[in-house]
């Protein structure tokens, strides 16, 4: 059980800055996701938290204790590696009991603990097998067993499902989440898969190029992205951007898309120059009465819904519509946007403009 | 008629079999010759045409381990019946055994120097290779090249400077001197070989051990070493074979106390010329330790112990 706080964490490898300056808080018992594309610094951040990498600067608190310069073994955390890193010269039982043996625990107690953990994970029948013959899922379970047997303050997992087959991954994700709920220990989980992050996480940090882009609960991040990167990285298909040259004013409630006015939540700041209107695919509807128009270029049938690609004067966009909605390639359609859900971005910096709708999530007074 | 892409045809199998057989014959011939010669009598050994079928005799082995002297008929008479089987072999040639030969001593020197230098090369090589593989070492590439460059000329090219150095340092004809010399020659090989093996061991194992509560040294000792066993075993075999068979330095730097078997064997002289069966017997016995060592470590030479524990 642990509350973890990261303050201005920075890591340089020679000339390369892997993590610029990360700050976030992980509350006790949270399932916390570090999300971002490869090379964004999420794994480096996790490794610094675990003590496998020393930060260039910044602080890490585990339960209000500054640990950034402490050895990994002194932090009382467990790490699950992407490639599992089971000790290949030991069998399953030895792998799981290894962390206990290092603490000098008595043999009878070790045996009891291993039995308990293997019952939780359902691996009692493979305890005496060598790890080299195990399937990916079993190996994953053994790796988890080695992590939970010590009852550490926190679990750190570096893409633990990355090495599994796609069909098995979902099953394992579910198992992981329910294991977390049962144990109640803080879990920090690195992934590049936004779906996985949304599915499993209590909270998400989105990183890019070593910078924390946004930090919050999955729904807030999905609905009210702080930057165009987050809006684009999360969601499938991602958020649509209609880029335009223009100006908006504090207090404004609509924007001018080449003569067609689109209503947006009341803006709380001025901006001018290259701007972009962000709209999730499911917040775009066909409406013949709408003044903003486009032409259908493609449709993708997905069962109950369909993804319709539309060419507009401000670029292509994708709308998620009911499959019952008639849509034929070549048709000209009017486009209506759900006013409540729109975000206006400064396209130059990529930052979301504060509005009445997102100010609470983005922390603007 | 059907054929498979992966399964060789009968004709291909036959061809491969013949090829292997021919190669095996070529390799085994000299070995078989030496072993056979060890069991011949001196006259059979130099008979022309060579005798393939002969009556086996242990004369070579007896001669290898003993020093003998020719005795007059009266002396032989006064000794009475030979006491042991080897006495009787020697008596047939009108000789008597006057003491053990130096072969045992030389053999023991070879064992001390060969295994001593192998242990030292592998030990130093493993820790050096681990450091090169895992830590940021300044000028790492240059150092690795420098280590390799000691192999770029035949070791004997530096024989004279080493001879002079050793004389100054009092290392001439000492076990320590030979162990240090063979270790120096083998170290480049062992560092390079072992670095390759250690590089292949995923660093996650050590990180897992570090998090599980072990120190860096414990992680090395308990996790890396067992993983590197294969590499360490094959490196040890290479080092031992070099140190065991080395001839040139041994001739130059040893004469009395620390002389190894290779320079000693060719000096075995019988009465009336080279005692070929004794030489062959010495060479045959000399093969045994390396063979045993290799067979013992054979299991480790088979790769793939780590296979499957980490998905790549």
Low-confidence spans of chain A: none
Could you report the average pLDDT of chain B, rounded to the nearest whole number? Answer: 87
CATH superfamily membership of the largest domain in chain A, which one? Answer: P-loop containing nucleotide triphosphate hydrolases
For the biggest β-sheet of chain B, the strand order reads 1-2
What structural category arises from helix and sheet content of chain A?
Answer: alpha+beta
Spatial extent as radius of gyration of chain B: 26 Å
Oligomeric composition of the shown chains: heterodimer
Q: Give the tally of β-strands of chain A.
A: 20
User: Could you name the CATH topology of the largest domain in chain A?
Assistant: Rossmann fold
Q: Report, as a whole number of angstroms, the end-to-end distance of chain A.
A: 33 Å
| Biggest sheet statistics of chain B | 2 strands, antiparallel
Radius of gyration of chain A: 24 Å
How many β-strands of chain B, per DSSP?
Answer: 4
Provide the residue-averaged pLDDT of chain A.
Answer: 90
Give the full name of the CATH homologous superfamily of the domain at 104-267 in chain B: MetI-like
What is the approximate shape of chain B?
Answer: globular
Poorly predicted runs of 5 or more residues of chain B: 304-312
- Number of separate domains of chain A: 2
Question: Topology, pairings included?
Answer:
The complex is a heterodimer of chains A (about 375) and B (about 300).
Chain A: E1 4-13, E2 16-26, E3 31-35, H1 42-50, E4 57-62, E5 65-66, E6 77-80, H2 92-102, H3 107-121, H4 136-148, E7 154-158, H5 166-183, E8 186-191, H6 194-200, E9 203-208, E10 211-216, H7 218-223, H8 228-233, E11 240-248, E12 254-257, E13 260-263, E14 271-279, E15 284-286, E16 293-301, E17 305-312, E18 315-322, E19 332-337, E20 343-346, H9 359-362
Helix pairs in contact in A: 2-3, 2-4, 3-4
Chain B: H1 10-38, H2 42-45, H3 59-65, E1 66-70, H4 73-79, H5 85-91, E2 95-100, H6 103-134, H7 140-149, H8 159-169, H9 175-199, H10 204-211, H11 216-245, H12 248-253, H13 261-264, E3 269-270, E4 273-274, H14 276-301
Antiparallel strand pairs in B: 1-2, 3-4
Helix pairs in contact in B: 1-14, 3-14, 6-9, 6-11, 7-9, 9-11, 10-11, 11-14
């Amino acid at each position: 059980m642990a509350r973890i706080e990261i303050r201005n964490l920075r890591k340089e490898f020679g000339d390369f800055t892997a993590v610029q300056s990360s700050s976030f808080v992980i509350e006790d018992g949270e399932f916390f996701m570090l999300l971002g594309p490869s090379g964004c610094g999420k794994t480096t951040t996790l490794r610094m938290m675990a003590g496998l990498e020393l930060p260039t600067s910044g602080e890490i608190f585990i339960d209000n204790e500054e640990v950034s310069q402490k050895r990994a073994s002194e932090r009382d955390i467990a790490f699950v590696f992407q490639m599992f890193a089971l000790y290949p010269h030991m069998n399953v039982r030895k792998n799981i009991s290894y962390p206990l043996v290092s603490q000098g625990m008595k043999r009878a107690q070790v045996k009891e603990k291993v039995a308990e953990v293997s019952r939780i994970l359902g691996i009692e029948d493979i305890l005496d097998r060598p790890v080299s013959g195990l399937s990916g899922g079993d190996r994953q379970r053994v790796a988890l067993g080695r992590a939970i047997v010590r009852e550490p303050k926190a679990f750190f997992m570096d893409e633990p499902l990355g090495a599994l087959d796609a069909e098995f991954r979902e099953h394992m994700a579910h198992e992981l989440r329910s294991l977390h709920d049962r144990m109640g220990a803080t879990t920090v989980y690195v992934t590049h898969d936004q779906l996985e992050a949304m599915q499993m996480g209590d909270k998400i940090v989105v990183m890019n190029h070593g910078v924390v882009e946004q930090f919050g609960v999955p729904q807030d991040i999905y609905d009210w992205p702080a930057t165009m990167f987050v809006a684009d990285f999360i969601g499938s298909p991602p958020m649509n951007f209609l880029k335009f040259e223009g100006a908006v004013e504090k207090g404004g409630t609509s924007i001018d898309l080449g003569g067609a006015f689109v209503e947006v939540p009341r803006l709380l700041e001025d901006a001018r120059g290259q701007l972009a209107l962000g709209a999730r695919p499911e917040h775009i509807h066909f409406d013949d009465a709408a003044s903003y128009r486009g032409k259908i270029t493609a449709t993708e049938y997905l069962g109950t819904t369909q993804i319709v690609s539309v060419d507009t004067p401000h670029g292509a966009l994708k709308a998620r519509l009911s499959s019952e909605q008639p849509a034929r390639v070549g048709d000209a359609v009017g486009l209506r946007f759900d006013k409540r859900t729109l975000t206006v971005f400064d396209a130059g910096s990529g930052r979301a403009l504060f509005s009445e709708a997102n100010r609470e999530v983005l922390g603007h007074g | 008629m059907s054929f498979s892409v992966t399964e060789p045809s009968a004709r291909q199998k036959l061809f491969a079999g013949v090829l292997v057989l021919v190669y095996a014959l070529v390799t085994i011939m000299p070995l078989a010759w030496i072993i056979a010669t060890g069991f011949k009598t001196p006259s059979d050994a130099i008979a022309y045409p060579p005798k393939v079928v002969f009556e086996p005799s242990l004369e070579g082995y007896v001669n290898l381990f003993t020093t003998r002297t020719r005795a007059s008929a009266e002396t032989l008479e006064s000794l009475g019946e030979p006491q042991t089987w080897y006495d009787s072999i020697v008596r047939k040639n009108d000789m008597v055994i006057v003491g053990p030969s130096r072969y045992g001593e030389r053999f023991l020197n070879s064992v001390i120097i060969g295994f001593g230098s192998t242990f030292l090369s592998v030990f130093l090589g493993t820790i050096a290779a681990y450091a090169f593989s895992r830590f940021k070492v300044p000028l790492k590439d240059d150092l690795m090249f420098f280590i390799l460059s000691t192999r770029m000329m035949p070791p004997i090219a530096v024989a004279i400077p080493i001879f002079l150095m050793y004389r100054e340092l009092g290392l001439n004809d000492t076990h320590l001197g030979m162990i240090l010399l063979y270790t120096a020659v083998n170290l480049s090989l062992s560092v390079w070989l072992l670095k390759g093996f250690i590089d292949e061991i995923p660093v996650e194992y050590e990180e897992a051990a570090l998090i599980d509560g072990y120190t860096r040294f414990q992680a090395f000792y308990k996790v890396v070493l067992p993983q590197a066993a294969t590499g360490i075993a094959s490196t040890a075999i290479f080092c031992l074979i070099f140190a065991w068979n080395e001839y040139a330095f041994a001739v130059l730097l040893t004469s009395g106390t620390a002389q190894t078997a290779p320079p000693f064997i060719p000096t075995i002289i019988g009465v009336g010329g080279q005692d070929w069966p004794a030489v062959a017997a010495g060479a045959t016995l000399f093969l045994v330790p390396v063979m045993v060592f290799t067979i013992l470590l054979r299991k480790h030479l088979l790769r793939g112990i780590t296979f499957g524990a980490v998905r790549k």
